[in-house]
Write a structure and sequence with these properties.
The chain is of the alpha+beta class. It is built from 21 helices and 22 strands. The chain has four domains: 10-227, Histidine kinase-like ATPase, C-terminal domain (Heat Shock Protein 90); 234-372, Ribosomal Protein S5, domain 2, CATH 3.30.230.80; 403-481, Rossmann fold; 498-620, Up-down Bundle (Four Helix Bundle (Hemerythrin (Met), subunit A)). Its main location: cytoplasm.
Length: 621
């Protein structure tokens, strides 16, 4: 016998589970049956596509055997099985990349943490909620040796050789006090029907069935085996035969979530391509949503045969939160990831699926606005990623995304912003570059407030990158208020051009600031502040340059901003009347530095800034 220790993350997770952070301990049976179903899916696929396994006898089934007297439950399958190396890898460690992120979010609040665990899905380890000892005997398909894995869920696990007549896995649970309620045949049938009724393989329950013996006038127990699930591919059935409960149960089984989904979209396409799709939107965003190694949530089937569940080619990355199933009649059973990347059939299914998902979301936004806002609270940001990567659906995405605004509380759509445009307004305006509080107080918004023009507040970290490539909404221009060209929209022809009067000061400031600025000019966008900085249309803003450098792009050229000053501000008027001296030079630098600070850009030399500020303060006190 070989004694092993759990990986650190497993030990942490097991402690949480054993202390009943799950609010529904019955979930253990769903998880173990789901594991058995996955094992059967994998072996069925191999028997159809791999010559090594084609001659293998394959009788797919899942067997539950209850021993009420000894309070044990056995879950056995005839699937792919595991060898010693697999048992260590799958039951002694957690390979999933999101584990550390998941553990870091645990707060110690049992109710909140139980929801996190539900989203994360701990699979096999949920057995330790109801058992004080778990024994696994497994034999890998194509191999002769079987292995036994045993653990109490505390210190570690033991592995030793064992015997099993056929390939597959048997899990035996020795129920603890919490789990004794499941040493009951009626309770087990109830849980199976609730969570696993749709599993495509038959689930049999062997138990002692009580029957009335009329001759003896007493109840007798008979060892009985019965199938306890429907064993049909639910997604292939007509929609009018399915209930809301059917859809929700399937979702919980394939996703590992225990909350009901927000929405689902079930489509059967017939014609040049035959396929069925069933997509779900989870109520809460997956924990690994923003990780590079996110886990996909869409399973691929061909003619009801499971093919894979980790192919990122099935949907674009900005829809990675979608869970569900694609079942095609036209793909080959031995399709590989390499083939998927170039397969025309899958490309067509993917294109149609994306349009279907976005179209359904658009209908929900129009007809169920309150439900749609719940969706937006979780998934507004990934939809924005689609603006950058999915040009074909950009207009639809612009309609789906919601925005903060200077005009309304909460969130608004571009369609609503367009409907509120002022007479003569030429463009839709937005501001990016930092936190919402910083953006709302930016000097760049002053003229828009004065003219009662609406500006969108884009404070997501990706907004600066994404919206720099979005120039129009329909026929209306989308313009960033920190771009130099936007001032052309704001020019009031009735007002005199003050640039000529201000020219001596503009030249003086440019001479003082030198190469730090591209140009110094009179501003038409300022009302209360003395200065601001803007960038040329084709150039990244100062904030964008800062972000790119933080991301490791060191070869970005040092682009110079344009400094704009307010001709009507008292500071500017006084500077215009002052002779050239040290105070005027200090004031020039302070106008530039404060404009940088308002943009959220750190000053290159804070000490020098403080020295100049102190000299000006000394004169004013």
């Amino acid at each position: 016998m070989s004694k092993r220790e759990f990986q650190t993350e497993v030990s942490q997770l097991l402690q949480l589970i054993i202390h009943s952070l799950y609010s529904h301990p019955e979930i253990f049976l769903r998880e173990l049956i789901s594991n058995s179903s996955d094992a059967l899916d994998k072996l069925r696929h191999l028997t159809l596509t791999d010559d090594v396994f084609k001659g293998l006898a394959f009788d797919p089934r899942i067997d539950l055997e209850l021993d009420e007297a000894n309070k044990t439950l056995t879950i056995a399958d005839t699937g792919i099985g595991m060898n010693e190396e697999d048992l260590v890898a799958h039951l002694g460690t957690i390979a999933r990349s999101g584990t550390k992120n998941f553990l870091s979010q645990l707060s110690g609040d049992a109710k909140r943490d139980s929801n996190l665990i539900g989203q994360f899905g701990v699979g096999f380890y949920s057995a330790f909620m109801v058992a004080d000892r778990v024994e696994v005997v497994s034999r890998k398909a194509g191999e002769e040796l079987a292995w036994r894995w045993t653990s109490d869920g505390k210190t570690g696990f033991d592995i030793e050789p064992a015997e099993r007549l056929v390939a597959g896995t048997t899990v035996t649970l020795h129920f603890n006090e919490e789990g004794e309620q499941y040493a009951n045949s009626w309770r087990l049938q109830e849980v199976v029907k609730k969570y696993s009724n749709h599993i495509a393989f038959p689930i049999f329950l062997t138990y002692d069935k009580s029957e009335w013996n009329d001759a003896e006038k007493k109840s007798e127990k008979t060892r009985t085996t019965e199938q306890v699930n429907a064993a049909s591919a639910l997604w292939r059935r007509p929609k009018n035969e399915l209930t809301e409960t059917d859809y929700k149960e399937l979702y919980k089984s394939i996703s590992g979530d225990w909350e009901d989904p927000l929405f689902w979209f079930h489509t059967k396409a017939e014609g040049s391509l035959d396929y069925t799709t069933l997509f779900y939107i989870p109520a809460k965003a997956p924990l690994d949503l923003y990780q590079a190694e996110y886990k996909t949530g869409v399973k691929l089937y061909v003619k009801r045969v499971f093919i894979m569940d980790d192919a990122k080619e099935l949907l674009p990355s900005y829809l990675r939160f979608v869970r569900g199933i694609i079942d095609s009649e036209d793909l080959p059973l031995n399709v590989s990831r390499e083939i998927l990347q170039q397969n025309r059939v899958l490309t067509s299914i993917r294109t149609a699926s994306v349009k279907k998902i976005l179209s359904e979301l658009k209908n929900i936004a129009a007809n169920q606005p309150e439900q749609y806002l719940k969706f937006i609270a979780e998934y507004n940001r990934p939809l924005k990623e689609g603006l950058y990567s999915d040009f074909a659906n950009r207009e639809t995405l612009l309609d789906l995304i919601r925005f903060k605004s200077t005009k309304v509380e909460g969130l608004t759509s571009l369609a609503d912003v367009k409907s509120r445009m002022k007479e003569g307004q030429k463009s839709l305006y937005y501001i990016t570059g930092g936190a919402e509080s910083l953006l709302r107080t930016s000097p760049l918004l002053e003229i828009y407030k004065k003219k009662d023009l609406e500006v969108l507040i884009l404070d997501d970290d990706i907004d600066e990158i994404v919206f720099s490539g979005v120039e129009k909404y329909g026929e209306i221009d989308l313009k960033a208020v920190n771009k130099a060209s936007t001032s052309e929209d704001l020019q009031d022809e009735a007002e005199p051009d003050k640039a000529e009067t201000l020219k001596p000061l503009l030249d003086k400031l440019k001479a003082t600031l030198g190469d730090r600025v591209k140009e110094v000019r009179a501003s038409v966008r300022l009302a209360d502040s003395p200065s601001c900085i803007v960038s040329d249309e084709a150039e990244p803003s100062m904030k964008m340059q800062q972000m790119l450098r933080a991301m490791g792009q060191k070869d970005i050229p040092a682009l110079k901003p344009t400094l704009e000053i307010n001709p009507d501000h008292e500071i500017v008027k006084k500077l215009l009347a002052r002779p050239d001296d040290v105070t005027t030079e200090d004031a020039a630098w302070l106008l530039f530095d404060q404009a940088l600070l308002m943009e959220g850009v750190p000053l290159p030399d804070p000490a020098l800034f403080v020295q100049r500020l102190n000299r000006i303060l000394n004169l004013s006190i």
